[in-house]
Give the backbone structure.
Amino acid sequence: MSDEHALDFARRVVLNVRQLRYSYHNDMNRCASAVFTTGTSDCGGLGAAVVATLRAAGIPARLLVGRWAKSAKPTDQLAGLPYGQWHVKLELFIPSIGWIPADAANEMQHPTKWFGEQAADFITMHYDSDITVTTLFGERTVPWMQGIVFWLRGDGNLDGLTLNEQWMVTSTP
């Protein structure tokens, strides 16, 4: 960073990561080293690459894991799979300013957007990945808790299991 202001450095990091390629599949490795090695990831991996870079430079940063605050439609898909409005954003902290929102993946065709801009259209479910939850089976780690998670004990298998999840956002009077 040398003499560069932390805010300028952070903006440059976000812009550089946004030049990588967006790609999604359910079981991809989203850690920063994998993202920089392959040059591709989804919103979680691209965000993790920004956060890791900023933290390495001494700038506090965190992932915001959640969903867009709009209902999913039955026809919404991502990589051929039903899409429940899942998304990952990030924030970075500059002491003289506070928490600054950013997005490493939304609208990749507009690389200068989504730095310092925040619409009230996102529901954060937790910070960073790998949230630990206490269950009847002990502590379990969930990398991205954005939907249905369950654990089973007993005989049998889950061959042929299908889940139908609906994400509905409604207003109350």
